Amino acid sequence: MTQATDITPKLAEFEARIGRGEKIEPGDWMPDDYRKQLIRMISQHAHSEIVGMLPEGNYITRAPSLRRKMVLIAKVQDEGGHGQYLYHAAETLGISRDEMEQALLAGKAKYSSIFNYPTLNWADIGMIGWLVDGAAIKNQTMLAHCSYGPYSRAMVRICAEETFHQRQGKEMIVKYAQGTPNQRQMAQDALNRWWWPVLMMFGPHDSDSPNSEVLRRWGVKTQSNDTVRQLFLDEVVPELMAIGLQIPDPQLHFDAENKHWKHGPIDWAHFWQVVKGNGPMNKERLAARNQAHDNGAWVRDAVTAYASRK
Ligand code: FAQ
Questions:
Q1: Whether 88 contacts 157, CB under 8 Å
Q2: 104 CB within 6 A, ligand 1
Q3: 268-299: per-residue pLDDT in tens?
Q4: How far is the CA of 159 from the centre of ligand 1 (A)?
Q5: 121, 124, 148, 160: most buried by Cβ count inside 10 Å?
Q6: Contact criterion met (CB below 8 Å) for 109 and 294
Q7: pTM for the predicted model, two decimal places
């Protein structure tokens, strides 16, 4: 029997399982491309969670109250935990933690563009919680229905935790928007800087998204980049307007016929620069991860020595 005739029935059965809504589990047969796509996406996602600890972690010592400090510590710790679940989910596909980590530290692996922007003041922490975690929830609620069991189950738990993250951020920004003129200005300034990068988080438009076709066919992405971006827009635009903030998009309008908010053109040239490593904070983020890795060498040595003891 040739390889092609051997594989085709397996592929047909694999696709039939996905069609029936069954989850694919680690030991199951899967096409190489499915495995590769999942390793790519889950490892990028894991790296995003770990690098995503940096912009907010920076503010733990500067939180304005003990309550805010406790909430922020819990949030940043959660993001580290999300990275752990996701690295484990990727490991079930046959890649090692070390390979993934080395790719990140060498600047070869991608992680979300959003974490390459600076946090300039405390209002940024609220805006990240509301909008960045809010965007992540929209994307991850979709991924919780994905066909790969370990990724889908990780998403269920992660989304529950991200919901707390989003609410604490929204609470903070709503308070600022109702506060002193200076606080309102801080909230507006944070929105001005984070708005467009957040819309970019969902990835390129569907027509420019090379991975979407195969990911949709095999039930990894159950909705497209533009669909998820639209869900987010329709939710947050009225909420931001309700608290008196101005969305920095002169072309933003409500399409009454289709009942959707429509944004103006996204600066994709800027997005690709950030993805390629030339964003405002890419170099600092990688340097911080490398420094943390180097500082942790003694812990890895101690764990290895303990594990190999007689
Ligand atoms: N940044 O063909 P597509 C969070 C790349 S977690 C950088 O459309 P795909 C929680 C893409 O990799 C945030 N690169 O790609 C938190 C591909 O390059 P490749 C992370 C991007 O995979 C909150 C190329 O462009 N979430 O925020 C980006 O089908 C607060 C072509 O694009 C996830 O990772 C981008 N924004 O769709 C943590 C969710 N967009 O690999 C701390 C899982 C695209 O071919 C604090 N990932 N690219 O060389 C996904 O859902 C998908 O990967 C998309 C992109 C939707 C992000």
A1: no
A2: no
A3: 999 999 999 999 999 999 999 999 999 999 99
A4: 16
A5: 148
A6: no
A7: 0.96
